[in-house]
Amino acid sequence: MVDVAKNLHEVLGNLPEGVRLVAISKYHPNEYIMAAYQEGQRVFGESHEQELARKVVDLPKDIEWHFIGHLQTNKVKYIAPYIAMIEAVDSMKLLKEINKQALKNDRVIRVLLELHIAEEETKYGLTLDACRQLLADGEWKTLKNVQICGLMMMASNVDDEEQIRREMNTAADFFDEVKAQYFADDPHFKERSWGMSHDYRIAVQCRSTMVRVGTTIFGPRVY
Ligand SMILES: *Cc1c(COP(=O)(O)O)cnc(C)c1O
Questions:
Q1: Which of 65, 196, 201 to mutate to test the pocket of ligand 1 (most atoms within 8 A of CB)?
Q2: Tens-digit pLDDT profile for residues 78-90
Q3: What's the mean pLDDT in 141-152?
Q4: CA-CA distances (angstroms) from residue 85 to 53, 126, 198?
């Protein structure tokens, strides 16, 4: 049995003032989520639309759900009624679909733009240049039902702390660049979502405002 409460408080104890925890509960049962909830945790992250839909029905309504995985445009409509934040937006097409579904539900959905900085080959995330281009294009300004709240990234899954630090600092510098250029007057643009179980202690030294920690709190996932 995993001691969720103890693990949760250990992680929270490692977070400086101003850094929020998104407890990543994908593949974990409702009882684990409730164990964290009872300790006061309210922000949880999931990466599969159907799993999330089941949990939303069964779990307390004041949970703030973040969608952290790759989201297909045809799935947006299912989560649009309740999702608090969609963290991994990596195309204009997805951003427009989120706006459309948010409008249908008469709400504003908060999103982060996902950067691809890691040296690893992954399919997801915007390169810095692609992100610059998306913002320079300006169409996002016409989307009134999405609120771009910052940036998200995953560092390379390596043991080399210096590499992780380099990648996170690149993301933090890039945040400053786009903040100054596009969001200087927008107080909502403030989130830097990086840091997972193996690297959140590095992330908080690299200006993360939001860490996404699963395994350290809930134990290994059972797929
Ligand atoms: C699963 C996942 C996490 C959490 O990973 P852990 O190693 O279990 O902490 C964080 N971010 C994203 C995008 C994930 O998919």
A1: 196
A2: 999 999 999 999 9
A3: 98
A4: 15, 18, 23
